Amino acid sequence: MTDTLPTDDWADRLRENREEKDRFFSEHPQSPIPPERREGFDGLAYFDPDPEYRVEATVTVFEDPDEIDFETSDGRTITYRRPFRFSFEIDGDSYELSGYRQEPSDPIFVPFRDKTTGQQSYKDGRYMELEPEEELSDGMTIEIDFNLAYSPFCAYSETFSCPLPPEENWLDTTIPAGERTPPL
């Protein structure tokens, strides 16, 4: 992608996005925060915005995607297709994440774990969703912004069932970007 925002504009948009999400979590009837805890909810915890965790990833497209069964937080399984793999570098080291969909029109689901998992971020991993403006093709590049990584709803309430990141999306590095351990 060549259409990235200048760092100041990007950071401002990120802060606005976080404020909007905090409002949703504290006020909306569909908030994952249980109603009895919303009054004391003071906003989500985030790592500071860091442009180093906006990475350019090279796309690999799988024409005949494998079906992957995900374990969920409540012990069930849910099936996704794996149509994409994203290769990128952080601090000079190479990594890969797979992107999943249940339906071809769905956003690309990128669940992951890293060395902050269970320490500084949610114990079962975090999610990102990618919604590229154009159809992805082999070899193109796309921006992955880990500053947008978020905790799944099951981090706030056991009434939600959440897919757990498969082992192929466990990163052997620290990603101090996005949401931190949920405040409860």
Describe the structure.
Helices cover 14% and strands 30% of the residues. The chain is α+β, with helices and mostly antiparallel strands and 184 residues long. The protein has one domain. The termini are far apart. Pfam families: DUF1684 (PF07920). This is DUF1684 domain-containing protein. InterPro entries: DUF1684. It comes from Halovenus carboxidivorans.
Feature tags:
alpha+beta
Count of individual domains: 1
Low-confidence stretches: none
Average of pLDDT: 93
Order of helices and strands: HHEEEEEE
Number of helices: 2
Measured distance between first and last alpha carbons = 37 Å
Tell me the structural class. alpha+beta
Q: Helical content, roughly?
A: 10-25%
Query: Can you tell me the overall shape?
Result: globular
Strand order across the largest sheet:
3-2-1-6
Strand tally? 6
Strand content: 25-35%
Radius of gyration: 16 Å
What composes the largest sheet?
4 strands, antiparallel
Biased composition (Basic and acidic residues): 10-26
Organism: Halovenus carboxidivorans
Region (Disordered): 1-48
InterPro entries: DUF1684 (IPR012467)
